[in-house]
Amino acid sequence: xxxxxxxxxxxxxxxxxxxxxxxxxxxxxxxxxxxxxxxxxxxxxxxxxxxxxxxxxxxxxxxxxxxxxxxxxxxxxxxxxxxxxxxxxxxxxxxxxxxxxxxxxxxxxxxxxxxxxxxxxxxxxxxxxxxxxxxxxxxxxxxxxxxxxxxxxxxxxxxxxxxxxxxxxxxxxxxxxxxxxxxxxxxxxxxxxxxxxxxxxxxxxxxxxxxxxxxxxxxxxxxxxxxxxxxxxxxxxxxxxxxxxxxxxxxxxxxxxxxxxxxxxxxxxxxxxxxxxxxxxxxxxxxxxxxxxxxxxxxxxxxxxxxxxxxxxxxxxxxxxxxxxxxxxxxxxxxxxxxxxxxxxxxxxxxxxxxxxxxxxxxxxxxxxxxxxxxxxxxxxxxxxxxxxxxxxxxxxxxxxxxx
Length: 404
What we know:
By secondary structure, the chain is an alpha/beta fold. It has 16 helices and 13 strands. A 6-stranded parallel β-sheet has the order 5-2-1-6-7-8, sandwiched between helices. Strands 9-10-11 form a 3-stranded antiparallel β-sheet, with helices on one face. Strands 3-4 form a two-stranded antiparallel sheet. The two termini are 29 Å apart.
């Protein structure tokens, strides 16, 4: 994808996640930021990136998680000259990503209709909380808000009546991340369509739409039985046993996905008769008799350590594992073998740690070309190479406050 150029006007997480994915796949990403402050997440710390002397920089760890393989230009497009610069850049870009409130970019001549007239091949991806249409279109949307409105929090958390019960958000901004992934997929689809039609199109992605789509089996359970799913803690609404269980030294996850796995668990656990018991023989019967079976399992799982259970059940191909801390995750031999932690050279922090892309391509592997950029780091490179601006012209725009 090195032939593709993306102008990224988005900030925070969903849009930057999409552009980082495209950048990992080889596209040139030009990140447009506000002079002086830049992407909101640069300030979302601590922790912050530190220089070799241990002093905090202006960039948070949060910002670093989603901005590698990008060039940063700091342009004030509330000024006419800034708008002119971006419209000139659009002429040689394939994709534009933005996550401003509906209609707000029209005032700056950076809306889809205006830019499509300048570059008919442009794929213009708009990411908002609620989409370009509908009664909520004017509202701002954030991941936490959408997790609540989109139903995710209604099925996340301990069940009513249990200690600590109540709706709970997921520990990572998953709606933003899923929207970013949908965005990158939609962009690639629009680019593929452009190969046939010769013209681009606008992509209208809403966080709420994505969250509703990603309710998956929970939404289908409701549509088919008319009952709103409830919070079940770590239990699964459709298969049993599929949750956490106490062990002699902590907890483990037991995730049986079929009757054969359950039968093999029973034999390994010294309870072979359970798999022939009509109350537990099939998944449907186990779901119906969930409370009884779980109480029986709790007594058995407490008899061994987590490590002992994992070793025992691995031998009989029953999915089982520990509940790791983030530190445990990066110490895990499988995670290490897959190279999920990488290091890149940063102009301030030196060699800094980052999390790798999970994409593995045999012919065109992901390349880590550049660390997350400093604010405005590439003003001169981008504007001189793409627009042919002279040093004097760039200096003058900087003096005017158009560039930061």
